[in-house]
């Protein structure tokens, strides 16, 4: 017999287990700010209301990803309606704890070293993180969602397909396009040469991602 996830004790444990996931994903998808906490509360409220109909066909985390993506899309629509721009804001404390992981999962440690080939091009981890966050927010919504779920949350293609309600091949397409678009924007923003000189310390993963070929 399946445990009653909506009981006070079980739901409190569920929130504790998944709150990091919710805050991280909302921060990456909508930018940092006080709105993230409000959206996170709404995410768990929607989850609680949906629990009576939860049949276990997907994991709770996949179910939450779907809720979070829907909330992020609502937030983007609200901002567009108010004619505000999706500008990069400082990460919330929850997002800061996970900030380095986004860089490492997207391109590996060699991405930072590529942008530090010379003293003039040396960028701190914080500067690199700020650049990725800003350019991520400038991507089309669906590409941003797929990139965050795949690189930050390390979801499988199948998990992303379930969370976004898309065919797996469509997920692959958006992931490829998102990587290419993000790498192009980063090269432009950071003035990185697309073809490093021979003997540079760039790793193969960095070269492929910055070229948009991964």
For the record, the CATH architecture of the largest domain stands as Orthogonal Bundle
Uncertain segments? 84-88, 91-102, 107-122, 193-209
For the sheet with most strands, the description reads:
none
CATH topology of the largest domain: Arc Repressor Mutant, subunit A
Architecture blueprint of SSEs:
Elements: H1 8-30, H2 35-50, H3 60-81, H4 93-97, H5 99-107, H6 109-114, H7 125-137, H8 141-152, H9 157-164, H10 168-190, H11 204-210
Protein name: RNA polymerase, sigma-24 subunit, ECF subfamily
Domain RNA polymerase sigma factor 70 region 4 type: 131-182
Domain RNA polymerase sigma-70 region: 14-81
Structure keywords:
Arc Repressor Mutant, subunit A, sigma factor activity, 11 helices, 214 residues, 67% helix, single chain, transcription regulation, Rna Polymerase Sigma Factor, Chain: A, globular, mainly alpha, RNA_pol_sigma_r3/r4-like
Compact summary:
The protein has 214 residues and is an all-alpha fold.
Structure description:
- This protein has 214 residues and is mainly α.
- The chain has two domains: 1-85, RNA polymerase sigma factor, region 2, helix turn helix motif (Rna Polymerase Sigma Factor, Chain: A, Orthogonal Bundle), CATH 1.10.1740.10; 98-214, Winged helix-like DNA-binding domain superfamily/Winged helix DNA-binding domain (Arc Repressor Mutant, subunit A).
- It contains eleven helices and no strands.
- It is globular and about 55 Å long.
- It comes from Granulicella mallensis (strain ATCC BAA-1857 / DSM 23137 / MP5ACTX8).
- This is RNA polymerase, sigma-24 subunit, ECF subfamily.
